[in-house]
Amino acid sequence: MLARLVAFIGWTLALLPIQLVLINLSGTAKRRIPLLYWSGVARILGVKLDVTGTIATDGARPVLFIANHSSWLDIVALGAVLPGCFVAKGEIARWPGINLVAKAGRTIFVSRRHGNTGRERNDMQNRLAAGDSLILFPEGTTSDGARVMKFHATFLALANDPSNPIVQPVTIVYDQMDGLPICRRNRPRIAWYGDMDIASHYAQFGRHNWRARIVLGTPVDANIGRKALAADLESHIATEAARLRQGRSHQAG
């Protein structure tokens, strides 16, 4: 566990200075380095990624990746797979160390305070206009990993942005611990929710190896209204997550 922590710090110190330079330059390298970084972190932390499906792209439009959320580890697993910037709650910007990594990954922080919504919306719209894809968690918080919580329609306002983004559902479920199926009793070792602190959670998590199954779904029609879109995405991802928790394979369509 300590060896993993030391390796994580070393890997971060190796790539962080490079990314902090790249984010101020033009070009696509600043979008590729986070994928490399999180892939390395996943290997260091003993997380095997099992990915089904493909990234939605038409070569021109950005993508809104809409995912369920049960753990801080989702950032690692999805960051290694999805070429996009996370949209995260503003308090993360105040976490020592983590905030620097998040900023280097070009994370957009949202406070959800009424006076800041206009500026935060503009930040996200500017990213989409520049061709950046975004990764959203419409639940607004983490779950216990045994269910998908209600998707909030306000998070999906960007689906009708002038950049006309592709909306792609993404389902993530942790289904194995040390090569064995995860049962309800073991989910708190991987899910991070409620008043859990990250240090004690890592103390449990870091002793084991995990498998994260990620399903990149078929893009959905965003022109159905925010509430209908939220309900559609929630139903799709909840169904897919239940299937993965039961150990069943992804079904196309």
From TrEMBL:
Q: Which Pfam families match?
A: Acyltransferase
**Domain (Phospholipid/glycerol acyltransferase): residue spans on this chain:** 63-175
Q: In which pathway does it act?
A: Lipid metabolism
An example GO biological process term is: phosphatidic acid biosynthetic process
Q: Which GO terms describe its molecular function?
A: 1-acylglycerol-3-phosphate O-acyltransferase activity
SMART domains according to UniProt: PlsC
Q: Which UniProt keywords apply?
A: Acyltransferase, Lipid biosynthesis, Lipid metabolism, Transferase
Q: Which domain of life is it from?
A: Bacteria
State what protein this is by name.
Lyso-ornithine lipid acyltransferase
What is the source species? Answer: Acidiphilium rubrum
